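Predict both folds.
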Amino acid sequence: MTQMTYIGAIGAAQREALTADERVVVIGEDVEANVYGTTGASRQRAEEGDFVQMFGKNRVRNTPISEEVIAGAAIGAAMTGLRPIVDLSYSSFLYLAMDQFVNQAAKSRYMFGGQASIPVVFRSAMFYSLNAGAHHADRPYPMFMNVPGLKVITPASPADAKGLLLSAVESDDPVLCFEAVPLWGTKEEVSEEEYRIPFGVARTVREGGDVTIVAISGSVMDAVAAADELAEEGISAEVIDPRTLVPLDSEAIVKSVEKTGRLVIAEPAHRTCGAAAEISAIVAEEAIHALRGPILRVTAPDMQIPFSPVLESLLYPTKEKILDAVRRVCGEAPQEKRSGEPKAYADAKDAPQ
C-alpha cells in the first residue's frame, strides 16, 4: 500500500494500463507535458521518467485543441483495435464534442449490430468550487446519464479512482470518467497491486440505521463529515457512494432505504434531471413502502456558476446543508407547526437546494 493522492492514483492507473496492454494509448491536450500530473512518473519512480520517456510518443500523444477532433480520432482508433484513454481536461469542454459522444461513441455498437466496439475512456475534470467561472465549472455527468450506450463513472476517492479507471480501460464500451477537482489533493492508502473495481457496485462508506445519505463525487466527503456530526447527536447515518452512475447500483440504494426508512441525496450537479432526481424516482418506485418521510435532495440550484468566490460558495452541497436535510427528514429540526399539514411534508417545502 502506498499513500497516494487522487490525481496520483489516476496517473498510477494509466501507467499500469499502458504497461499491461500495448493497445492502450493516452491522447489529449498537453498530456506529453504532464500538465496535471497524470502522465508523469510518481515520486517513487522518478528515475523512470515521464510517460513519454517510458512509452514513447506513439502511445502518449498531444492533440490539437479541438475536442470534437480528439473524440472522433479516439473513436476511430478504438474501431481499429486500440484502447485510447482521452484527457479532455475541463468537463465543460465535452459540449464541443457532443455529436461524437452521442451519435458515434454511444450508438456504434448498436448501429453496426455488435460488429464494432468503442473501448475508449474519456476523462474530464469538474473544476467547480474553484472560482473558474461559468465556462469551466460545469458538472455535466447527468446529461450523459441520459445517453444510452455510454457508461458514466464518478470516483470519489483515490483508491476508487485507480480501480474504476482500470475497469474502464478494459470495458469494450465508451466510458466517461468525471473527476471532481476538489478531490484531486485528497490522500489515502492505495494498493500498488493490480486491482479492479467493477461497475455497478456501490460503496457503503459508512453504515447506519436512521437515514441513508447517497452522495455523489465530491459530495461524499461532505456526507461523511455530516454523518460524523450526526452520530454525536444520536442519528445514525448510512453513507452510500454509487461510484458509477451508469450502471447504477439501485439495489444497494433501495436496500439501504428499506433499512433506514429515510433518504437524502447530495450531489454537486444542477437540481433538474440530475442523478439525485433519478435516484429519487427509483426509490419512489421501489421502496416507497419503507419511507417514513420525504426524500430530500441537496444539489446546486439551476443557474449558471458565478465567478465571484463569495457567490459560488453558496451553490454546492456542504456538510451544513446535508446536516440540515437529514435533521429535517428525521424530524429533528425545529419547525413551526403548520395546521393540517403533515410535518414531514412541511419540512420538504423548505428543503435546501
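Second protein follows, with its predicted C-alpha cells after the sequence.
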Amino acid sequence: MTAPEPEPTPLHDRALQDLSFIRRTMEGAASFTDVPGKGLVALGLIAIAAAFMASRQPTPDAWLTVWLVTGLIGGLVGSGTMYHKMRQRIGAGGAFSLSAPARKFFLGYWPALLAGAVLTVALIDPGTPGVEAHVTERLLPGVWLLLYGVGVTTAGAHSVRAVPLMGIGFILLGTTALFCSALGGDLMLALGFGALHIGFGVHIARRHGG
C-alpha cells in the first residue's frame, strides 16, 4: 500500500513564501546606511575639546579621567544620533527593529571595542596606585585608535564605503601612536577621534543624510 501523496501547497501560499525569501535575501545583501554623519561631526568636536583639556592635566590619572568621561559622552551621543537616524528612516508609525545589515554591523563593531575596554583595564592596572605616564602618553592612545579602527573597518564591510575607509585611517593613526611616541598621544587622538570623525561625518551627511 503506497502512502498518499501530500497535497500541493496552494499557489498564494507559495507566492508569499517566495516573496518572503526574496525580501530576506535583499535585506541581507543591503548596506547599513544609518551611520549618522552629523553624529560623527559632534563626536569629532567633543574629541578635539577633550584632547585640549587632557593635554593640560597635571597627572596621568587626571588625563585618564578626561578621556574616560569623553568616551562615555561620546558613546551616548553616537548611540543617540544613530537611533535618531534609524527612527527617521523607519518613520514615526513603524515598529523599531534591527535589520539584517544593522545586526551584521554591530556584530563587527562591538568585539573590538570590548577588547579595547579589557586592554584599558589591564594597562591601567587598577590594583596598583597611580597610572604610569607612558601608558597614557603612548599605549592607551594607540590601543584606543587601533581597536576602534578595527571595529569600524570590520563593521564598515556592511555599510557605505566611507565607513571602512575611516576605520583604516584609525588603524594607521593607532599604529603610529604606538610606535612614534614623539608625536604625542593627545595629538593622535585629536587627529583620529576629532579630525577623522569630522571629515568623514561631513561626507556621510552630504552623501547619505543624517
